Model the fold of this input.
Amino acid sequence: MELLPMLNTKHEKSTSLPSQFETELFIANGYDVDLEGRPLHPHLDEIGPLPTGKGAYWGWGPNYTADPIVITTEYRPRVLLIHRNDTGDLALPGGFVDAEELSEPIKASYRELEEETGLVLTTDGKLVYQGIVNDPRTTANAWPETSAYLFNVAEPLPVQAGDDAKEAGWYFIDELPETLYGSHAALIQAALETQNQPRTIEEILSIPAENREIQIIDAGHMAYDHFFTRHQNDHLFVKAHDSSRFSDAFREAHSRAYLQKEYTLFHHLQQQQFSYIPDRVALIEDTVLAMDALHPDDGWQWRAPKQPEVLDQYIYDAIEAFDHLQQITPPAHPEYHTAINDTYSTIWEEGWDSIDDESLQKIVVKIRSFSDNWNPQQVELSEALIASLPEMRQQTSHQTRDEELFMAHNDARQSNIAWHPDYGIRLVDWSWGDTGPKNADVTMFLIDLAKSGKDVTPHLPVINQDYAQVLIGFWLAHSLWETRDGSQTVREHQVASAIAAYKVLNSPE
Done:
C-alpha cells in the first residue's frame, strides 16, 4: 500500500469534491475515478453496491488507520480489545493516522493504544497486515486502509478505557465471538499466524539484550564468548568472536576463519539434506555464529545416558548419523582451506610426524605424571601403552596416507553430540569438520565412550584401527603443548583418550 502524502488522514471534515490535484493524485496511484473526480473503491465489483460520497470518513479514497494487536504469550493467549462507543462492537483499539504519523503508522498504533486503553508499550511491534479492510462505514468513494501491528506481552497488563472506547479488557482468543468489528477477526488471525512463524536468528538477536534471557557458558575455546539466549519460544546458542582478546592480527583472523568454516559446513550440510545438525544456523558479520540451542531444559542430553537400554539407542543413533555423514559429498574447493589447514593432514603433522626420540621420552614422563589420579587398571593400561609406543611409532611411519577420504566431523566426542530421545542426534562444533578416513568419527566416538567407562565391545568391528593409532599420536603429542592458563586438565584428558584408544585396540571382539 503506497500512502498518499498528506491526504486522507485525520483533519477537518469537508463535503467538497476532490480538487483537480487530488483527482490526478488518485489516478497516479492507480485508483479509478468517477465523473466527479472521486476515487472508486478498488474492490467495488466484488463487494457490490455501496453508498456514494465520503460518508463518515475524513477524506476521499483511502483513509489510513492503525490497529495495534496486543496478544499475550501465555499458554492460552489473550488479546486486548475494546467495546466501541459508536457501535458497542468488540474491536481492536485502533484509529486514524495523524498527518505527522503518515510515514510511520506504527506511531499511531502506540498513540491509539494509550488513548483507548491506557496501555503504554515500549516493545517493538511487527507489521502483520497493511491494506484495505472491511468496515461498515465504507462507501464507494471512501474506505479504510490499515496498518496492523502485533505486540506481544507476557501476561495481561492493567488497562482502562478512554477516548473512543466504552470498555477495555483482555479476552481469551479461543472464546472470541464469531463477529468482531469490521475485519478485526481476520487481523487477529493474521497476527496469530505471524506469531507462530519461526523468527530468523537475526531477528532474535536484534532484540535488545535486556529483553532476552542470557546464560553465559564458561566452556569451549577461550577466543570466543559462549552463551545461551532465550526470547519467548526461541532458544539459541551463540559463539561470538572477541577481537580484543588478540594482540596478534594473524591469530585474530584465524579465529574468525574458524567461525566462517563452521558456517560454511553447516550450510553445505543443510543443502545436502543432512538432518543431524541444528535446524537454524546463522553467521552474522563473520563474528557471531548462532544456532538453535539444543538446551538440556528442552530435553537434549550432552553426555551418554547411564541406563543400558537408553545407552544402546544413543550409540546406534550416533553411529547412524556418522554413517549418513560419510555419504555426504564434501565441499568441492572449500575457501576455508586458504586460511585453515585440512584436518586429516593436521592430525598427522601435529601427531606422529612431530614425535621424535626426545619428545617420546617427554610423553612417557607426561603420562606418568598423571598416574596419581588414576585407578590401578588405568595405571596398568598406561604402562602397557608406554611399552607399545616405539612399535606404534614404527607402524604409523609406514602407514598409507592416500586412502579414500570421506566427509567427517573429526571431533566426535560426547560434548559435541546432542541427543534427544524423540529427535535423535544433532552434531555441533564443526571447527574440525573436513574429510577423514573410513569410520573416523565412529572410531573417535567409541574411544570417547570407552574413556568414560562405557562398554563399547559390541561395536568394535566398526572401529578403524589404523586411525585409532593415528589419534593416539595426536593426543599424546598435544599433551606436551603449553596451555594459556597453565592448567593440565585438558592435557590429562588427552592422555586419558590415548589410553582409552589403546584399550579399545587391544580389547577382544
